[in-house]
Each structure stands twice: as structure tokens, then as C-alpha cells.
């Protein structure tokens, strides 16, 4: 199946989820992450949700990470396809971007080579670990700058797409795991 078809399908499916249901599913999803052996690392990069697009709410996961004394890193878009990463602290101030993404205004920058685990936003994924995002390439560019051993974990309200994504590009970075409310996929 083509990415553009999956984008349309999953944007519509997510739009049908109420905010209360999204909140409940996000909490289940955060608890499912406890099954993955990632708790011996130091730097965890996590996206901040776009509420208007019914994305997985990452606040329960951030709370979980902070409760385990992990360093939480959040992104800020700085150019047409590039992000910087900042340590989340009690003093971090946020501003919504043009896309509605809460971004840190400034702070302690964390280089890509320090990041151990990345929680990746997505619209859809297949059984091989290929993901479909919004199509801007921010995360593929970012993930290609990370170390090869950095663990990549997708977060989705929906299960793996039954058909393989057919228009995967050479710069697309596969997931190591994808967590849904029902299952943890390992690739």
C-alpha cells in the first residue's frame, strides 16, 4: 500500500477518536511500554503531541520516564527538515509551532549521538517496521543522525497495517518496536 493512501486512511481513523478515548488509550500504551527492555538507558527522546490531530498523548509516558529518573529530550524544528533536541526540565518553556506542536523555546541542547531511545510519531506502520509519518521527513532526517544502536519505538493507536508499505525510500528508518494499546511489536 502507498504512503499517501495510508496517511489519508489513518488521519480519518484518528479523527474519529474522541479526546477521552485517546486519553484512555494513551495511558494503556504508556503502560505497555514497560514490557520493552529499555530501562537501562539515559536519554529518551519523545515527541510532544499535536492535540488537534488526535495523536497519542505522550504526557503519561513522559511522567513514567521522569518517575524512573530518565533524561527526557524533546524536539524543536529549526529548518525545513531539521530538528534540535532539548533536555526537558522544570524550567522548560514551550511555544506552539506553526504546525501546532509544542516546542521548547530554549534550554540545554542534547546532541543526537547521546540519545539512546527515540519515541517516534507516526500515522501507520506495517509488520516489517516501516512507518508512515506526515511526509515532511523530520524524523527520518533526525534518526539518520542518531547512532545505529539507538532504539526506535513507534506509538500508535492502531495495529500494524496488513499490507506492506510499497513506497519505502532508502532514507526511511525502520522501527525497532511499535507499541499499541493491544500489543508490542518487535521488528
TrEMBL record:
Family matches, as InterPro entries: FTHF_cligase (IPR002698), FTHF_cligase-like_sf (IPR024185), NagB/RpiA_transferase-like (IPR037171)
SUPFAM superfamilies noted in UniProt: NagB/RpiA/CoA transferase-like
Reaction it catalyzes: (6S)-5-formyl-5,6,7,8-tetrahydrofolate + ATP = (6R)-5,10-methenyltetrahydrofolate + ADP + phosphate
Keyword Lipid biosynthesis attached: no
Pfam families the UniProt entry points to: 5-FTHF_cyc-lig
Organism in which the protein naturally occurs: Allomuricauda ruestringensis (strain DSM 13258 / CIP 107369 / LMG 19739 / B1)
Binding site residues for ATP: 3-7, 131-139
Gene Ontology molecular function, alphabetical: 5-formyltetrahydrofolate cyclo-ligase activity; ATP binding; metal ion binding
Entry's EC annotation: 6.3.3.2
Protein name from the UniProt record: 5-formyltetrahydrofolate cyclo-ligase
Record keywords: ATP-binding, Magnesium, Metal-binding, Nucleotide-binding
Binding site for substrate: 50, 55
GO biological process terms, semicolon-separated: folic acid-containing compound biosynthetic process; tetrahydrofolate interconversion
Enzyme class: ligase
Cofactor(s) this protein requires: Mg(2+)
Ribonucleoprotein listed as a keyword: no
Amino acid at each position: 500500500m502507498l504512503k499517501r493512501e495510508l496517511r489519508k486512511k489513518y488521519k480519518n481513523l484518528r479523527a474519529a477518536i474522541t479526546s477521552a478515548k485517546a486519553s484512555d488509550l494513551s495511558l494503556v500504551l504508556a503502560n505497555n511500554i514497560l514490557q520493552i527492555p529499555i530501562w537501562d538507558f539515559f536519554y529518551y527522546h519523545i515527541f510532544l503531541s499535536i492535540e488537534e490531530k488526535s495523536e497519542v498523548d505522550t504526557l503519561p509516558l513522559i511522567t513514567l520516564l521522569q518517575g524512573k529518573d530518565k533524561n527526557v529530550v524533546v524536539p524543536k524544528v529549526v529548518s525545513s527538515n531539521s530538528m534540535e533536541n532539548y533536555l526537558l526540565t522544570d524550567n522548560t518553556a514551550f511555544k506552539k509551532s506553526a504546525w501546532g506542536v509544542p516546542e521548547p523555546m530554549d534550554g540545554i541542547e542534547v546532541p543526537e549521538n547521546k540519545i539512546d531511545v527515540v519515541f517516534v510519531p507516526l500515522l501507520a506502520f506495517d509488520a516489517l517496521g516501516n512507518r508512515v509519518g506526515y511526509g515532511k521527513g523530520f524524523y527520518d532526517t533526525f534518526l539518520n543522525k542518531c547512532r545505529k544502536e539507538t532504539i526506535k519505538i513507534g506509538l500508535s493507536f492502531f495495529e500494524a497495517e496488513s499490507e506492506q508499505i510499497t513506497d519505502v525510500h532508502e532514507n526511511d528508518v525502520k522501527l525497532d518496536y511499535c507499541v499499541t494499546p493491544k500489543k508490542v511489536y518487535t521488528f
